[in-house]
Protein backbone atom coordinates (compact mmCIF):
# COMPACT_ATOMS: atom_id res chain seq x y z
CA UNK A 1 0.00 0.00 0.00
CA UNK A 2 1.24 3.49 -0.83
CA UNK A 3 0.00 6.97 0.14
CA UNK A 4 1.09 9.85 -2.05
CA UNK A 5 0.22 13.53 -1.68
CA UNK A 6 1.14 15.94 -4.48
CA UNK A 7 0.82 19.73 -4.40
CA UNK A 8 -1.99 19.66 -1.79
CA UNK A 9 -3.48 22.87 -0.39
CA UNK A 10 -5.25 22.19 2.89
CA UNK A 11 -7.30 24.39 5.22
CA UNK A 12 -10.78 25.61 6.08
CA UNK A 13 -11.37 29.38 5.91
CA UNK A 14 -7.73 29.99 5.00
CA UNK A 15 -5.00 27.77 3.58
CA UNK A 16 -2.94 26.31 6.44
CA UNK A 17 -0.75 24.02 4.35
CA UNK A 18 0.17 24.89 0.78
CA UNK A 19 1.87 22.90 -1.94
CA UNK A 20 2.38 19.87 0.36
CA UNK A 21 4.09 16.75 -0.97
CA UNK A 22 4.50 13.41 0.83
CA UNK A 23 5.02 9.77 0.02
CA UNK A 24 4.53 6.94 2.54
CA UNK A 25 4.75 3.19 2.12
CA UNK A 26 3.17 0.49 4.27
CA UNK A 27 5.24 0.18 7.45
CA UNK A 28 6.68 3.70 7.26
CA UNK A 29 6.52 5.85 10.39
CA UNK A 30 5.63 9.54 10.03
CA UNK A 31 5.79 12.22 12.72
CA UNK A 32 4.00 15.57 12.49
CA UNK A 33 5.48 18.29 14.68
CA UNK A 34 4.40 21.92 14.76
CA UNK A 35 2.92 24.75 16.76
CA UNK A 36 -0.79 25.01 17.57
CA UNK A 37 -2.93 26.02 14.61
CA UNK A 38 -0.49 25.21 11.81
CA UNK A 39 -2.60 22.42 10.28
CA UNK A 40 -1.43 19.06 11.69
CA UNK A 41 -4.93 17.79 12.51
CA UNK A 42 -6.35 19.38 9.37
CA UNK A 43 -3.82 17.44 7.28
CA UNK A 44 -4.76 14.13 8.93
CA UNK A 45 -8.50 14.82 8.54
CA UNK A 46 -7.97 15.67 4.86
CA UNK A 47 -6.11 12.40 4.27
CA UNK A 48 -8.94 10.50 6.00
CA UNK A 49 -11.63 12.50 4.10
CA UNK A 50 -13.26 13.77 7.31
Automatic annotation (TrEMBL):
Record organism: Chryseobacterium piscium
Family matches, as InterPro entries: ABC_transporter-like_ATP-bd, P-loop_NTPase
Listed GO MF terms: ATP binding; ATP hydrolysis activity
Residue ranges crossing the lipid bilayer per the database entry: none
Keyword Isomerase among record annotations: no
Protein name (Swiss-Prot/TrEMBL): ABC transporter ATP-binding protein
This protein's UniProt keywords: ATP-binding, Nucleotide-binding
ABC transporter domain boundaries: 18-49
Annotated Pfam families: ABC_tran (PF00005)
Keyword Acyltransferase included in the entry's annotation: no
Amino acid sequence: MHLQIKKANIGYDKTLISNANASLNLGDVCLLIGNNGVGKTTLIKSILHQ
